[in-house]
Specification:
By secondary structure, the chain is mostly helical. The protein is built from nine helices and no strands. The chain has a single domain, classed as Tetracycline Repressor, domain 2.
């Protein structure tokens, strides 16, 4: 009897193999051959799931976004807006190994998206979703006391900047520091500082 393969699970497995290659060797090494080898599969098996390297990379990039979205969906949005915003926004920062790896992979994809139209589309959707989330939390915390659009841009820039700092200078941009900077900014929005 032939082995039944769960296609969705196989695709996730391949995306994770692509992330491992990217983390270890860089995005330019995430070829079909290298990802298949990392996943313990033949090139043909990978090509059965993804016709091109571009399809694989787009899927792998989207998997980073979906993992983050699943974590956010699992959070309780009830309670004090300032505390709730912090709980949600901390999920976006690279505070543990899993999120650090997601952050590094995401930054590699984002850099490639500057020259790859297929990846750019995913990056732009994610950018828009994060900007909308920032607007939501600024509105919830500060309401009409602030220029919501400007403060949403500031919060978005803060999150992006912290993620880049954590990737490029992890010994300086520690999890404790990231938490502190975000908390200080949210306190300012809430009028607590």
């Amino acid at each position: 009897m032939p082995k039944i393969v769960d296609a969705a699970e196989r695709r996730r497995h391949l995306a994770e193999a692509a992330w491992r290659v990217i983390l270890r060797d860089g995005l330019e090494q995430a070829s079909v051959r290298n990802v298949a080898r990392e996943a313990g599969l033949s090139n043909g098996s990978l090509r059965h799931m993804f016709g091109t390297q571009a399809e694989l990379l787009v899927f792998a990039m989207n998997q980073v976004v979906e993992r983050i979205e699943r974590r956010l969906e699992a959070l309780d949005s009830a309670g004090d807006p300032r505390a709730t915003a912090e709980r949600f926004l901390l999920e976006l920062l690279p505070l543990d190994r899993t999120r650090q790896e997601e952050n590094l992979v995401w930054l590699a994809f984002t850099a490639r998206a500057l020259v790859d139209p297929e990846l750019r589309e995913c990056a732009e959707r994610s950018y828009d979703a994060l900007r909308a989330g920032c607007r939501r939390w600024v509105t919830a915390i500060a309401g009409d006391r602030v220029d919501v659009e400007q403060e949403a841009d500031r919060l978005h820039a803060l999150l992006d900047g912290l993620a880049v700092h954590a990737a490029t200078r992890p010994e300086v941009a520690t999890a404790e520091k990231l938490r502190s900077v975000l908390a200080g900014h949210l306190d300012t929005l809430a009028g607590l500082r």
